[in-house]
Amino acid sequence: KVLAPGPARRREDIEEAANSIMSVARSVGPFDISSDLKALDQGQIVKWAEKDLLQRMTTYRFYIKAAHALLWMGMLCAIFTCSILLGLYMMEQFPNTPWVWRTYSSIVGFNGGVAILFAVWMWCSSANPV
User: Which stretches are transmembrane (predicted)?
Assistant: First the structure.
């Protein structure tokens, strides 16, 4: 059967293409999912959840340790900054009493050193510094 070019031939080409697409869709598309669905094993789902949970806990432990270290460093920087700045202020405002700023700076500096030792001791003595 030979058809002349025109609307009838185009309609036949379109129908042929649509039929080809539908046959492919039936074999690999969403139409064949319902007939070929396999149930997942409950044990496999539990293993996936366990692996995901362990990964999250590892990440959480890293971030909590980093947060603790940064918090301690921030507090120590604040202590030493106060020691230096207030010592300089006292040295400038009270030039006739040099022992005041020296005593203040040494006391605060000593306490900062003790805080460093305490932070290292806490970090080393506990497995999970929470």
Answer: 69-91, 103-124
Are residues 109 and 80 in contact, defined by beta-carbon separation less than 8 angstroms?
Answer: yes
Instruction: Give the C-alpha separation, 58 to 80, whole Å.
Output: 33
Lookup: tokens for 104? 């203040």
* The overall pTM is greater than 0.70: no
Phi-psi label, residue 112: left if phi above 0, alpha if psi -120 to 50, beta otherwise: alpha
- Residue 130's alpha-carbon distances to 38, 67, 70, 78, in angstroms, are 44, 10, 13, 22
Average pLDDT over residues 94-116: 87
* Residue recorded with tokens 């492919």: 24
Q: What is the mean pLDDT of residues 62-70?
A: 82
Query: Do residues 76 and 119 touch, judged by C-beta distance below 8 A?
Result: yes
**Local confidence band at 111 (pLDDT 50, 70, 90 cut-offs):** confident
Residue spans of alpha helices (H) in the chain = 7-28, 42-93, 98-125
Whether the pLDDT of residue 36 is over 60: the answer is: no
